[in-house]
Amino acid sequence: MTTAYCLLGPTASGKSRLALELAARLPIEIVSVDSAQVYRGMDIGTAKPSRAERERFPHHLIDLVEPIESYSAGRFRTDAIRAVEDIVARGNLPLLVGGTMLYFRALAAGLDSLPLADPEIRSAIDLDAKARGWPALHADLAHLDPKAAQRIAPNDAQRIQRALEVVRRTGTPISALQTAGSAPLPFELKTFAILPGDRADLHRRIAARLDAMMKAGLIDELRALRKRYKLSAEMPSMRCVGYRQAWGYLEGEYGVVDMREKAVAATRQLAKRQFTWLRSLKEVEPLDADDPLLAERLARRITPA
After folding, report:
1. Averaged pLDDT, 227-232
2. Residue 24: which residues within 8 A CB-CB, separation 6 or more?
3. CB 163 within 8 A of CB 141
4. For residue 114, what pLDDT is reported?
5. What is the DSSP letter of 65?
6. Which domain holds residue 25?
């Protein structure tokens, strides 16, 4: 059976850089496993590969939809399988790279796996419920996931919260995740995970990357997107880390210093969740992020016979 390779890791762990180093050594085409990079125009805050990098090394599943559109884990699975099959047909090696664990689990295990609880999202939902009441949030759910709303009572706080949490975090209705089946993969998936051993160093890299994004024009990028599209803070695209905090800044909720602190804190929380997911995955081979010869060693592991 054909083999596809997957390189996972928490945000700012260096997986994209490693993927490019591998692509310089092998006939690799990269398939993004990133729920933010699917949105057109959201380049700075999603750390998309540069145009030059994408011209040199083929990338897939980037810039698929507009920020006002939705993109689900189910659609990712379909698109990723098609991309892998096309890459193999060209005689190249497919390398899936990213940190959106829901997408990876949708691909590897199907769509029945729901995401872990997100304390930040749940807290925001609870605050909204205190202000507007659970029936109002049920009405929101009816707009986002009509099937789930039909079977949940307007005052069933726990189930409303969970359904809203899932759709806000994943962009996919909980009804779809609970009912969709999945055919077996038409290829073998060999998965590696790059795991930084020094959390303090990872936190420094997260802060440095956020600073670089702000210097590159993250706020201006979002300002331009708000002028171009009829966006709202509740859209999945605007729930992405970095854009969510920049949105609050543009709304006058806090200053730029607080925006940076909130974005760094949210990115750290994201990395922590990603670590938790990675540890829960079976048949994933860990990689030492601090190994200076990592690209060379991994290239030998995936070199075609």
Report:
1. 95
2. 57
3. yes
4. 67
5. B
6. 3-112+180-302
Give yes or no: residues 137 and 266 share one domain.
no
In terms of C-beta density within 10 A (0-12 exposed, 13-18 middle, 19 or more buried), how is residue 76 classed? buried
Residue with tokens 């011209």: 55
- Specify the 3-state DSSP secondary structure of 197: coil
Cα–Cα distance between 175 and 136 in angstroms, integer? 20
- Taking the C-alpha atoms of residue 7 and residue 289, their distance in angstroms, rounded to an integer, is 12
> DSSP alpha helices (H): ranges in 90-237?
101-109, 119-132, 134-144, 146-150, 157-170, 174-179, 199-216, 218-228
Indicate the DSSP class of residue 191: E
Dihedral angle of Cα 203, 272, 252, 172, to the nearest 10 degrees: 140
Residues 98 and 204 in one domain: yes
> Which H helix or E strand runs over 22?
helix 15-25
Question: Which amino acid is residue 246, in one-letter code?
Answer: A
Residues 171, 76: Cα–Cα separation, whole Å: 11
The two beta strands, 188-195 and 59-60, are unpaired
Domain check: are 28 and 101 in the same one?
A: yes
Same domain membership, residue 263 and residue 165: no
Burial class from Cβ neighbours inside 10 Å (0-12, 13-18, 19+) for residue 133 reads middle
- pTM check: above 0.85: no
Taking the CA atoms of the chain, what radius of gyration do you get in angstroms?
19
Asked if 30 contacts 95 with a C-beta cutoff of 8 angstroms, the reply is: yes
Instruction: Tell which residue, 13, 10, 5, has the closest CA to residue 290.
Output: 13
- Please calculate the CA angle 105-169-164 and round it to the nearest 5 degrees: 120
Residues 249-275: tens digit of each pLDDT? 999 999 999 999 999 999 999 999 898
277-298 in b/e form (b: 16+ CB < 10 A) is bbeeeeebeebebeeeebbeeb
